[in-house]
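Troubleshooting entry. The earlier prediction with adenosine-5'-diphosphate gave an output that would not parse, so I re-checked the input for stray whitespace and re-submitted. Clean input:
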Amino acid sequence: MIEVRNLTKRYGPHVAVDDISFQVTKGEVVGFLGPNGAGKSTTMNILTGYLSATVGDVYVDGTNILEEPEAVKRRMGYLPESPPIYGEMTVREYLRFVCRIKKVPKREVKDRIEQGLHRVGIAEVYNRLVGNLSKGYRQRVGLAQALMGNPDILVLDEPTAGLDPKQIIEIRDLIRSLGADYTVILSSHILPEVSEICPRVMIINDGRIVADGDPATLAGDLFDASQVVITAVADEAKARDAVSGLRGISRIEILPAGESGTTEMLIESEKDRDLRRDIFAAFSAKQVPLIGLRVKNATLEEIFLELTSGVKEADVTEVDT
Ligand code: ADP
Ligand code: MG
């Protein structure tokens, strides 16, 4: 349904989005996960036709968005990261205004607004000023706005940013329910958010897609069996000595020991290289009792940190898009 091909966006010499390609199928709920400055908003602004790309193409059902932005924009509902706030309008006035901009046929406006209000749960604040609403309600109004054009794709940029914990849960539930009826692309720098809502996660770092898949597979695939935690009845020096002759170890870390007289050690090897047998044999050869040996499965959190480490915050400047 959506196809992004070799998309690159440069701001002067700075590469914000670096040759990314991906596809989204109809009905999917996809999360862009990445730290601040990763290129999520830039990608979304291009996807929705609000920003031009330096290189690359975006197709929605075969129509090139850069060539026919109006046709494609009609199919998308977009909640930008910092939507313009029309604080002096009531919710009703604002949604009518949005319908006008989106050229909703006059006779459909009433129904469209009615349905939108109920879908996002803001019927009770219909006549209040947008500026007087809580941030949670304002975000719902933003979602209602995105629905006004009767889109089949929703693009939501950091939809829970700035909300309190209760509002965050409510907005997440709402997005989950929208996911049943729309193709959704949402972005977040918060991992649990994306992994809770999205069956598919794309981790974006430094303008590139560094992982793409369902959260469980990402966690399993990338690190499975590459980390083994052992407990040996020995001091640290003896434990280190036992594995000193082993090939294939990329890193060793001493962990806080659970029992006195023992050493807990994390042994890391290349991906897909299972060292458990070799480790067992090595301790056995040195006659150091091994009382624990287990594979440590990485969580998505660890993967995220690993894949996005090395981001230089100093390089990241906040610029309005
Ligand atoms: P994210 O949404 O993941 O936080 P952005 O897409 O907003 O990331 O930004 C990606 C990179 O592009 C950042 O380094 C940011 O500073 C830079 N950037 C974004 N918009 C502009 C702009 N209008 N001018 C110059 N640099 C920009
Ligand atoms: Mg952003």
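This one parsed fine. Confidence is low (pLDDT under 50) at residues 311-321.
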